[in-house]
Amino acid sequence: MTWRTTAFGAVVVLVTAGMTAYALSAIAENDRRTSTATAATTTTLAQVEKGPRIVFRHTGRDAEYGHVGAVTLADPGGPRALTDLSCDRVYAQARSVSCLRTERGVVSRYRAIDLAISTSGQAWREVDETDLPGLPSRTRLSPDGRLVSTTVFVNGDSYLASGFSTRTAIRRVGGASYGDLESFKLVVDGHRVAPVDRNIWGITFTDDGRTFYATVATGGRTYLVRGDLAERSLTTVADHVECPSLSPDGTRIAFKEADESGTRWTPAVLDLATGRRTVLAGEVHSIDDQIEWLDDDTVLYGLARQGEPVSDVWALDTSTTATPRVLVPEASSPAVLR
Question: Architecture of 38-337 per CATH?
Answer without folding.
Answer: 6 Propeller (2.120)
